[in-house]
Amino acid sequence: MKVCKICGSIEGRLRYSVDGFDVIQCSGCSVVSLDLKKNTDPSNLYSKDYYHEREAYYLKNSIVDPVNGIENPNIIDFREGLKVIESYKASGRLLDVGCAMGVFLAMAKEKGWDVFGVDVSVYGTGFAKEKFGINCFAGRLRDAHLPDRHFDAITLWDVIEHFEDPLKELNEIRRILSDDGIIIFNTPNVESLMRSFTDWIYKGSFGFIKYPVKKLYHEFHLYYFSSETLVMLLNMAGFEIIEMNKKTIPITKARGNRWEKLIVKAITELEKSMHREFEIFVIARKRRGAD
């Protein structure tokens, strides 16, 4: 195992091994991460092909295509997220880290927010600029050299799991967040019922059946958190949690054929009844005295 970038431990437990990567759980902090068998430049992963392969999620929605697009669960989630932000902050400067094609920022801009986006994808940020007129930076957050205490709200929709070094990125987010600002994000729940099913299948087949693991753990996501490890990580970065909830996965995010999506839908219903939903939703602020 490589040195854990969160706690510095060099000891870990192998959970799964599949083509292209191993899934490791750190013995020091219990965070689950990927050990990729080859290095990949993140900016190359999020090309035009990435977005168009997921066009139902990114392109066929009512913001990108007001005429033919639909108000899909992703857009509904964005609207709810904006309402949550505005329950704390009526308006101000909003940064979306991992802004992709700028859909959420376009919605915030329409409500009067002064918006800015950061994403490693040159295609995504280019689309946001051309389609919505949004000011974006193509690259890593720390390379944008944004001002101290500049933003009133910072969002990270399905992003924190993509960071190569989550603690370092959260430290940068704390630096550029205003003293009374908030951050809001969602991320997969490593303790969801769906991932438990995957674990049972993998272990029950003595590692022979790898397909479910490859569906739920993949090269785009480098880290996987539980509620407990998120609390630890945010505390280390100088944040305190205002609110933490669990959410089921929108079917628009589910990858696979019709039968696989039906299975996901069935498990989702079980997750709700057992309070072991697929995603964790967090609102946090700077912890006083952390700087």
Describe this structure as you would to a colleague.
With 291 residues, this protein is of the alpha/beta class. It has one domain (42-189, 219-286): Rossmann fold, CATH 3.40.50.150. The protein is 36% helix and 24% strand. The chain is built from eleven helices and eleven strands. It has helices at residues 42-45, 48-53, 55-58, 73-88, 103-110, 122-132, 166-176, 193-204, 211-216, 227-236, 258-274; strands spanning 12-18, 21-26, 32-36, 93-97, 114-119, 136-138, 151-157, 177-188, 223-224, 239-247, 279-286. The strands form two sheets. It has a seven-stranded mixed sheet with strand order 6-5-4-7-8-11-10, with helices on both faces. Helix 7 (166-176) links the parallel strand 7 (151-157) and strand 8. Helix 4 packs across helix 5. The protein is globular and about 55 Å long. It starts with 11 loop residues before the first strand and ends in a 5-residue tail after the last strand.
